[in-house]
Amino acid sequence: MALCAMNKKCGFWKLNVHIHIDRDMTNNEYYFQVQGQMMVTGIEQAFFVIYTNKDLFIQKIMFDIDFNLKMYNNLLTFFQNYHSHEMNLINKLILLSKKKA
């Protein structure tokens, strides 16, 4: 594995990567993912774990209702402003294709 990474023949391996994790997980990009997964599954706590050859980091994360409500509202706004517009275009294309058939 190390030889593979050193020779850069396996793009998915990274060697000697330094990961800085702030103890305040709310600033971490993975916090959104973990909170979203907890919202979808309905669990109240999760463990964020990073394991490397040099260290082990474990952070208990509790479900944050305020964070999830804000995230939900942002996702809803995104969906309403962008995704629904795209779906309207797709529906128009489907209708046009049915008229031609």
Summarize the structure.
The chain has helices spanning 2-6, 29-41, 65-100, and strands spanning 45-51, 56-62. By secondary structure, it is an alpha+beta fold. The chain folds into two domains: 23-63, no CATH class; 65-101.
Instruction: Describe the global form.
Output: elongated
* Biggest sheet overview: 2 strands, antiparallel
Spatial extent as radius of gyration: 21 Å
Number of domains: 2
Number of helical regions? 3
Q: Could you tell me the strand content as a percent range?
A: 5-15%
What is the rounded distance between the termini? 55 Å
- How would you classify the helix and strand content by structural class? alpha+beta
Strand order of the largest sheet: 1-2
**Parts with pLDDT < 50 across at least 5 consecutive residues:** 1-17
Order of helices and strands: HHEEH
Q: What's the number of extended β-strand segments? A: 2
Fraction in helix: 40-55%
- Calculate the mean pLDDT score and round it: 75
Question: Can you characterise this structure?
Answer:
The chain has 101 residues and is of the alpha+beta class. It folds into two domains: 23-63, no CATH class; 65-101. 53% of the residues lie in helices and 14% in strands. A hairpin with a 4-residue loop joins β1 and β2 (56-62).
